[in-house]
């Protein structure tokens, strides 16, 4: 499903949700986001546009639109639910457990492997969700600094 900001009105109408001004701002803000914000962060952003929108309105809108399939709700680890619109191509997520950053990626090889595994078990994939929890890799010492280290240790 692809959602364009101009589709918001139609989606809400089709789903019997009145497109109130706050709802419109909430969805538009989420359409612009690329970082899968949680409700509190989204609320912070919408109140820069419309200071009177309540956090409870943001919560209710997110829940209603997730139920209608307009938004995808993610529960990454133990953190609060985070949201993204379903307007983008399928992708998987790397979740940085240190910073909470979410990185999107897509691997044709992983997609193919998953299909193969499902097929081997006599199934076809309906959908899948891949979340990989990561932390920044320890940087490997460059050759130069490794050589310097050896010299210093030899002294
Ligand atoms: Zn995503």
UniProtKB/TrEMBL annotation:
The keyword Transport does not apply. One of its GO terms (molecular function) is DNA-binding transcription factor activity. SUPFAM superfamilies: Winged helix' DNA-binding domain (SSF46785). Pfam families: FUR. GO terms for cellular component: cytosol. Binds 1 Mn(2+) or Fe(2+) ion per subunit. InterPro entries: FUR, Fur_C, WH-like_DNA-bd_sf, WH_DNA-bd_sf. Transmembrane segments: none annotated. Its cofactor is Mn(2+); Fe(2+). Homodimer. This is Ferric uptake regulation protein. It comes from Manganibacter manganicus. The gene is fur.
């Amino acid at each position: 499903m692809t959602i364009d900001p101009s589709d918001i009105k139609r989606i809400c109408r089709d789903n019997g949700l009145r497109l109130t001004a706050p709802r419109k701002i909430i969805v538009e803000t989420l359409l612009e986001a690329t970082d899968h914000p949680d409700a509190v962060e989204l609320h912070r952003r919408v109140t820069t546009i419309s200071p009177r929108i309540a956090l409870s309105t943001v919560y209710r809108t997110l829940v209603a639109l997730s139920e209608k399939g307009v938004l995808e709700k993610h529960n990454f680890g133990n953190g609060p639910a985070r949201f993204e619109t379903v307007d983008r191509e399928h992708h998987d997520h790397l979740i940085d457990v240190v910073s909470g950053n979410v990185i999107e990626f897509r691997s044709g090889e992983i997609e193919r492997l998953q299909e193969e595994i499902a097929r081997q078990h006599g199934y076809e994939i309906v959908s899948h969700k891949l979340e990989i929890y990561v932390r920044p890799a320890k940087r490997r010492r460059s050759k130069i600094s490794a050589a310097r280290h050896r010299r210093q240790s030899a002294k």
